[in-house]
Amino acid sequence: MIHVLKTGFGVALSFMTLALLALASAAQADEFKLSNNQRIACSRGLSAGKLNTATCKSYAYVFNTKTSEYFRCQVSLALTRDNKEVINVQTDGGCTKKPRIFDGDGNYSFDATETEAPNTNSFFGPGGYAIWASDNTAMKVRGCITISSGLGSDISKCVDMKFE
Prior knowledge:
This protein is α+β, with helices and mostly antiparallel strands and 164 residues long. It has one helix at residues 2-29, and strands at 32-34, 39-47, 51-64, 70-81, 86-98, 108-114, 128-135, 140-148, 154-160. The longest helix is centred in the N-terminal third of the chain and has 28 residues, at 2-29. It starts with a helix and ends with a strand.
């Protein structure tokens, strides 16, 4: 009987531990939010031998609502075909970590948008993007713009908004 009680207690303790771990991982997952402003841009080209190629790229941003760090993620697909069949499909993608928008931890909201190349707004390179972040507990908003300098490094500046 004591063996059964010990086993039952051990199973109950295991389930409680798993439940706490699940809650902890759910809380961690809730700290990351996907931006609401995804875009897709596609281009088409003709190759020798009457091959058609279409390339599409899309991006999204993943934001840590506690630290204000974010990741720029991009996915691309290139499709090559002739008049009868698909010859080749290539995909690529990944996320690049970007710096914090606010120095301290908090409870932040976030959104982003960017130019879609080729675009007349991209004067020096592939274009740029804008990041908006706000503190959910205070009237604090920061707007950031990043553009390609055309010289190898991006230029990024943030401005704290004034409320008048």
